Amino acid sequence: MKKVTEYIFLSVLSAMAIVSCDGYLDPGPQPTRLFDVDFEPGFNIIGVLRVDGMEGSSFVHVERVYHIEEVEDEFEPTIEDASVVITDLQSGISTEFFYESREEEFMNYTDSLFLPKINREYSIRIAGADLPELTGTTVVPSVPVIDSSSVAISSDKCKFTILGCNDAFMYDVVLVTLNSEGLIGLMQRIIATDDQSVEASFDLDPDYGTIQWAEIYAYDENLAFYLNVSMTIKPQSYQETATTVNGGYGCFGSVVQSVFFF
Questions:
Q1: What distance in Å separates the CA atoms of residue 36 and residue 34, rounded to the nearest whole number?
Q2: Quick one: residue 200, left, alpha or beta (phi over 0 = left, psi -120 to 50 = alpha)?
Q3: Which pTM does this prediction carry?
């Protein structure tokens, strides 16, 4: 189950760049005003506090902003010697994350014992490398819960309701099934509205096999925004910079996972 969960989460992160191939040769969106900006060096990060029952799964990936002209063979924008500190703003306890490089994975800053708490606000501070200090905050969402009385399963559909909470801004719901070839993950992304409950609905096929469990990922406001920024590969397109941190670029957010067995 751990491998399935890790695969799903990495797939979610890989989906950050959402592209559109319709009318590829047509010009994309254009700016509505003139900009006169200079290149400003700074950190560019993706930091995710994860509540998934596993210590040390939270991470911060740190790079520097760079000119496109710098990109060449063996180019590496990752910064290995920054100071990365996560602070629980309620308890005042700070945890320093250290750089760790693993084969076939992002080179991240982590702490093997760190496990964030739900409904707590955390701050991040990144300094060093002769770059401006980067800061940001995130409020860890509540554990997403399925209303067991709402579960309805038929031969061609599975649906259920996720009870609303006011600190989750988006859900990724993964229905896991098992057939003769192994596990299959069906994913649905749902944008939350205030504290209203939301319904997840999956179309089923006999080839999917039998339903095993559902995994629900509840995202804070920062990650929900960052994951839904519309990116484009159309030429001559303009896109404003999306960031949820101060003094730099990127996102610092949090996600909480729960598992419901059928």
A1: 7
A2: beta
A3: 0.82
